[in-house]
Amino acid sequence: MNVTFGSEAMPDIDRITGRRRMRRNRRTDWSRRLIRENLLTVDDLIWPIFVIEGEGQRHKVPSMPGVERLSVDAAVAAAVHARELGIPLLALFPNTEPDKRDDDGSEALNEDNLICRACRAIKAAVPEVGLMTDVALDPYTSHGHDGLLREGEIINDETVSVLTRQAIVQADAGSDVVAPSDMMDGRIGAIRETLDASGHAQVQIIAYTAKYASAFYGPFRDAVGSGKMLSGDKKTYQMDPANTDESLREAELDIAEGADMIMVKPGLPYLDIIFRLKQTFGMPTVAYNTSGEYAMIEAAAANGWLDGERAMLESLIAFKRAGADSILTYFAPRAAALLKEGA
Ligand code: PBG
């Protein structure tokens, strides 16, 4: 029956909805909790850390408010904090001194390089926390590319052979997970073979499977100091943001070659790719919530344009909703602390 409200007749919503009232379940906090489909926990988080030379050094990254580059001793302290928070995995990225960068990124193979020293120190102090290291040459090359540059081209197979050696150097230093972020063809299989042949059969591989040539890496390149050095772009090896079927073919290869987990990067603008890869392959799937995504939220929050904490938690749950099992995010320590408080 229609009730009149002022001069308007009230619509008969029960008739329109067939008596289905979606808001009934949303009315109370307990009910919202009861029907919640996805859950973000500290177990989902991977915390990326930028490492620098020196002692007692903490340098702010201007384009990533709240993120600091840490000397090895400070990185160890961060690892202790990760253990307290219950964060399962740390991802280490080096900011290599400019004088150690050369055309071929040879510092990547130095078993006493910054990343190896950081691995050994963290493993010795905090063995319970997993350590992931990045396999790619860009923190070490004078041109900022992930591979070897010959006559204007990033050459594939020679790069892969250097990457296999880089992976061994990192595994020898105590890395639990090597994560090739270079996008060369065949590198997952080659690295798996070399790891197995050198006593590192237990070392896991997280493949940067669908890594796009993206503008969202800008602040990261500031943080590791490769941005100013980069000549040209990475479009001949990283994926075209217009493509989605191609990510399936990348995933097929990485899985066949021995990837233990696959990753999609960037994260938020590529939730469709996360969803599709998870649905198709059912692999442990990692989302990389990149530096640019982090910077956007931080910049807007600093201007008072949005509630940074809520935007952070909302983006992280979006990854879970899309099907990601874990999320590599610069928000990790803050999100973990909030989740501990019961956010
Ligand atoms: C480089 C690498 C990049 C990132 C992780 N590993 C940058 C790039 O490919 O240029 C980006 C991370 C981020 O933006 O947070 N191999």
CATH superfamily: Aldolase class I
- Indicate the radius of gyration in whole angstroms: 23 Å
User: So how many helices?
Assistant: 12
- Write out the strand line-up for the largest beta sheet, numbering strands in chain order: 3-6-7-10-11-12-13-14
Question: What fold name goes in the CATH topology slot?
Answer: TIM Barrel
Order of helices and strands: EEHHEEEHEHEEEHEHEHHEHEHHEH
Task: Kindly describe this structure.
This protein is of the alpha/beta class and 343 residues long. The chain has a single domain, classed as Alpha-Beta Barrel (TIM Barrel), CATH 3.20.20.70. 39% of the residues lie in helices and 18% in strands. The protein is built from twelve helices and 14 strands. The strands form three sheets. Strands 3-6-7-10-11-12-13-14 form an eight-stranded parallel beta barrel, surrounded by nine helices. It has a two-stranded antiparallel sheet with strand order 1-2. Helix 5 packs parallel to helix 6 (187-197). It starts with a strand and ends with a helix. The model has no long low-confidence stretch (mean pLDDT 96). Bound molecules: ligand PBG.
